[in-house]
């Protein structure tokens, strides 16, 4: 089982930046990918970005392309989400998740971190 701890959220003005971190511990040796998701009030959780651990291949939701960058540190099993040019609609609780294999679903385990963008 993998434990996930997200951090780095906060209150920022529109146009500002934040960097989220997600530290994974436990059974991380079989990680296929890690991803970031978010859930705004009254909305379903949605995909934001993901990274395949072995190839460094990255994926982004259209709504964040060009503004967000995902990266990872293999040595510390940490995945980051650099968020620039933040918009009001980026306000949400951000969760990271791990995908153990290519065929399994993402597994969530952290409490999430709140990102609030103000005007």
Task: Write up what this structure looks like.
The protein is mainly beta and 119 residues long. Helix content is 0%, strand content 54%. The protein is built from no helices and eleven strands. Strands 2, 4, 5, 6, 9, 10 and 11 form a seven-stranded mixed sheet that branches. A four-stranded antiparallel sheet has the order 1-3-8-7, with no helix packed on it. A hairpin with a 5-residue loop joins strand 5 (46-52) and strand 6. The mean pLDDT is 94.
Please outline the helices and strands.
Layout lengths: L1 E6 L2 E4 L4 E9 L6 E7 L6 E7 L5 E3 L7 E6 L4 E6 L8 E8 L7 E2 L4 E6 L1
Parallel strand pairs: 2-11
Antiparallel strand pairs: 1-3, 3-8, 4-5, 4-9, 5-6, 7-8, 9-10, 9-11
Label the overall shape.
globular
- What low-confidence regions span 5 or more consecutive residues with pLDDT below 50? none
Report the major sheet. Answer: 7 strands, mixed
Specify the structural class: mainly beta
Instruction: Write down the secondary-structure element order.
Output: EEEEEEEEEEE
- Number of strand elements: 11
As a percent range, the share of helical residues equals under 10%
Helix count from the secondary structure assignment: 0
The residue-averaged pLDDT reads 94
- Rg is 13 Å
Strand content: over 45%
What distance lies between the first and last C-alpha atoms, to the nearest angstrom? 40 Å
């Amino acid at each position: 089982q993998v434990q996930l701890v997200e951090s780095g959220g906060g209150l920022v003005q529109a146009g500002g930046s934040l960097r989220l971190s997600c530290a994974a511990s436990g059974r991380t040796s079989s990680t296929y990918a890690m991803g970031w998701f978010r859930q705004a009030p009254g909305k379903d959780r949605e995909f934001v970005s993901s990274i395949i651990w072995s190839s460094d291949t990255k994926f982004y939701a259209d709504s964040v392309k060009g503004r967000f960058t995902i990266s990872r540190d293999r040595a510390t099993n940490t995945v980051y989400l650099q968020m620039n040019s933040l918009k009001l609609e980026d306000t949400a609780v951000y969760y990271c998740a791990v995908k153990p294999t290519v065929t399994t679903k993402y597994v969530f385990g952290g409490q999430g971190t709140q990102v609030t963008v103000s005007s």
